[in-house]
Amino acid sequence: MCTPGNPDNQATRCSAGEHPIALAVEPSGRFLYVANWGAHSISAFRIESLTGTLSPVTGSPFPAGQWPHSVAIDPSGKLLYTANGQSNDVSAFRIEPSTGTLTAVRDAPFPANNHPEHVAVSPSGDFAYVCNGFSHDISAYKINRETGALIQLPGAPFATGEKPLAIAINPSGSFAYVANRRFDVWAYRIMCASGALEPIEGSPFPAGRGPTAITVEPSGRFVYVANFRSDNIGAYRIEHDSGALQQLDGSPFACGSIPIGLATDPSGSFLFVTNGNSNDVSAYQIEPVSGALAPVEGSPFPAGQMPCGIGMEPSGSFVYVANWESNDISAYRLERPSGVLTAIG
C-alpha cells in the first residue's frame, strides 16, 4: 500500500516489511527489491516508468534468511542475493523478467562466515563478495551464470579490518573497497581470472568514526564513505593504476545526524546520503574534476523514520529510501540540473 506525498515535500511512502534496511533496483528499472531485516523477507515492487510510483509484485514479500542486511542484483537483472546476518548465509533468487517474482536458486542459501552484513556483485556478474561483520573477513564466490549458484573461491574468506559493514566495487571490476566500522577502509585488487582479493599497498586507509557505507561513483575516480559516528562523509580519489586512496581536499564533508546509506546518480553528478537520526536525505553536487561535495539547495529532504538503504532507478529519474522505523519506502523524483529531490505523490 502507498500513501501519497504532502505539501511539506514528504515523499510517497509504500509499506514494506518489518524494519526495511536496504534496497536495490533491477538494471532495467522495472522492479525494486527491499530487504526486510525484521520480517526475514524481500519485498518486491513494480516501478511505474513515467511517475516512479510503486506497486507490489504478486507474491511479495518473498522469504529470505534470518536478518537480511543487504540486497544485490547481478548486471543481467536475472539474479538477486541477500546477506543474512543471523543465519550466516546468502540467499539466492532468480528474477522472473516479466513479473519480477523471485524463485529460490537450487541449493540456496549458501554458507557465509560469521554475521554477513553486505553483499556485492562484480560488474561482470562473475563474482559475489560478502562482508562478515563478526569474523572480520570477506567471503568470495564464483557465480554460476546459468543457475545462480555460489561456489566459494579458493583462498576465501579474505582478511579485512574489524567489523566490515559494506563493500563497493569500481565500475571496471578491478578494485574493491571495504568500510570497516573500526575507522578504516581496506582496498583490494580483484584478480580478473580468479576473483581473489589482494590488498593494495598502503591499505588500510583512514576513515572517520564508524564508517558504515561506501560507494564508488560511476566514473570510477572517487570513493565516498558514510561515517556513522562522526556525522560526515569521507571522500577519496582513486589512484588510477594502483587503486590506492587519497583523501580529497575538504574531506570529510558534513551531513545530517547518523549517516547510514549512500548512492550516486548514474551520471556521477550527485551523491545522496540517508541520515538515520535526523530522518532526512542529504543531497550533494559532485564537482566533476575534484570530486568535492557541495550541498544541493534545499537539502536535506524529509524521509521516513530512520532512513537506511537508498538506491536509484537506472535512468537517474527516481530515488528510493528504505525507512527502518516507519516500515516503508520513500520515493522521490530527481530534478535536473539542480539535484533537488521532489516527493512523488
Question: What does this molecule look like?
Answer:
The protein is mostly beta strands. It has a domain at 17-159: YVTN repeat-like/Quinoprotein amine dehydrogenase (Methylamine Dehydrogenase, Chain H, 7 Propeller). It has no helices and 36 strands. The strands form seven sheets. Strands 1, 2, 33, 34, 35 and 36 form a six-stranded antiparallel beta sheet that branches. Strands 3, 4, 5, 6 and 7 form a five-stranded antiparallel beta sheet that branches. Strands 8, 9, 10, 11 and 12 form a five-stranded antiparallel beta sheet that branches.
Mean pLDDT across the residues is: 95
Oligomeric composition of the shown chains? single chain
CATH architecture field of the domain at 17-159: 7 Propeller
CATH fold category name of the domain at 17-159: Methylamine Dehydrogenase, Chain H
Main pleated sheet: 6 strands, antiparallel
